[in-house]
Q: What sequence folds into this?
């Protein structure tokens, strides 16, 4: 698996035209007097809220965006303008008034988790708990099974493949050695509660997982179901995009299929913000939220990265 550093490197994200965003962000960084906390690792976090005049020239962008400034520093930027307004009678951070707290929290969480993914490595996200993998497996298998009317056995195999695929998102290699595959199968059994025989029979036929395109091909090859003959990445995204709502929901769901920092941020927000309680993804998450360990681990990681993450 090729680890996707930012959402704009994923299958969907790389199709976005962001050259103008990159140029405008670089210009803003030059024109803005930024005081960075040197105790923090790069990339430095930068929220685009529309306070600075130069920020008005930055085209809207959906996901955390990494950019290098002329002074050699690296920044990870997030467009917060849809969720805030600026009080021109106040100065600096005090002029920013949050008008959509739930969406703001999700955007902030995605920004921070992406930084942890970059500076601390994939293990910082995988170590949050097994819950995101469980939710991912159910989210994918239930959505596809409902859409294509799959039988219970095919749904179980699909859940196994989704769990196996999710784990591959944390690996740098497209090939799986025997030890790695053994560990992944063990997680699949815990997540899906499937018999070992079915898990091994299913995953033994997986040859390559680089992205959602490979995942869809594996599903068709292994399930051998005539109803899935036209199944592809586009179908997968179309079926799952309505399980979340809010600003840029479809784009966020599409990226979540390949970018764990985005995925865990969505799960955290689903569990902590009442605004999203009626979403299908929130209902699935709550089934696996037996305790508060995931939320606590998420907040702790966010605090470790920024030193000031506010969970209120």
A:
């Amino acid at each position: 698996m090729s680890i996707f550093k930012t959402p704009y490197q994923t299958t969907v994200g790389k199709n976005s035209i962001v050259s103008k965003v990159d140029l405008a962000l670089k210009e803003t960084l030059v024109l803005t007097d930024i005081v960075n906390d040197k105790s923090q690792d790069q990339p430095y976090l930068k929220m685009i809220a529309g306070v600075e005049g130069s920020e008005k020239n930055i085209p809207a962008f959906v996901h955390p965006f990494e950019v290098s400034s002329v002074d050699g520093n690296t920044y990870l930027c997030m467009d917060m303008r849809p969720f805030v307004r600026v009080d021109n009678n106040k100065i600096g951070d005090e002029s920013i008034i949050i008008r959509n707290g739930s969406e703001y929290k999700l955007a902030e969480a995605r920004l921070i988790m992406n930084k942890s993914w970059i500076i601390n490595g994939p293990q910082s996200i995988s170590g949050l708990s097994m819950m995101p993998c469980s939710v991912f497996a159910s989210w994918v298998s239930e959505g596809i099974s409902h859409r294509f009317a799959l039988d219970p056995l095919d749904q179980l195999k699909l859940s196994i493949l989704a769990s196996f695929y999710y784990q591959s998102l944390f690996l740098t290699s497209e090939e799986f050695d025997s030890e790695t595959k053994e560990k992944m199968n063990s997680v699949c059994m815990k997540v899906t509660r499937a018999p070992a025989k079915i898990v091994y029979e299913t995953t033994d036929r997986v040859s390559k997982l680089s992205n959602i395109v490979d995942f869809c091909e594996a599903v068709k090859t292994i399930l051998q179901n005539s109803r899935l003959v036209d199944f592809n990445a586009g179908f997968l995204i179309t079926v799952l995009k309505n399980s979340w709502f809010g600003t840029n929901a479809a784009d966020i769901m599409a990226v979540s299929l390949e970018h764990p920092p985005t995925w865990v941020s969505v799960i955290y927000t689903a569990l902590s913000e009442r605004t999203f309680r009626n979403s299908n993804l929130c209902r699935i998450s709550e089934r696996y939220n037996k305790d508060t360990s995931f939320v606590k681990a998420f907040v702790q990681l966010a605090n470790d990265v920024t030193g000031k993450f506010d969970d209120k």
Summary: The first strand starts at residue 44 and ends at 48. Residues 181 and 203 are 8 Å apart (CA to CA). The longest helix spans residues 101-119. The beta strands are 44-48, 65-68, 74-79, 84-86, 96-98.
